[in-house]
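Just scan this pair:

***
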Amino acid sequence: MVEEGKKAPDFTLLDQDGKKVKLSDFKGKYVVLYFYPKDDTSGCTKEACNFRDTFPKFKSVDAVILGVSPDSVSSHKKFAEKYNLPFRLLADEDKKVVEKYGVWKEKSMYGKKYMGVERTTFIIDPDGKVKKIFPKVKVDNHHNEVLEALKD
């Protein structure tokens, strides 16, 4: 289980350009690692665009934003290009990272149960430790909550 104050599990995934991204490569910076269910769906688009619109503020506190979902590299590429996302989206097609971070959960919609990503954000500090976890994220003001937590 990933917990605040503990080391964040390292991983390597491909971004929307097919380049390998390793979490430990960002040592020395804050990382906003946000897990979301699916590219180009209403909540996920709103969340990504909110991060996009406040991206300069995240850069000013030396934070890197990484979005992770089980979608493919090509799906991420289309999503990032469509909305001019200035940060990397990571493809976790085999769901190893969503499982490692405990965000792959049973969900239900219209009475049907299925497995999916529970929208969750982790702030990882420059030493690679989990500073804060935002479980079951509501997208509306989430980017501001994350910025506030980075300033603490």
Q: What stands out?
A: Strands lie at 12-15, 20-22, 30-35, 63-69, 88-91, 104-109, 112-117, 120-124, 130-134.
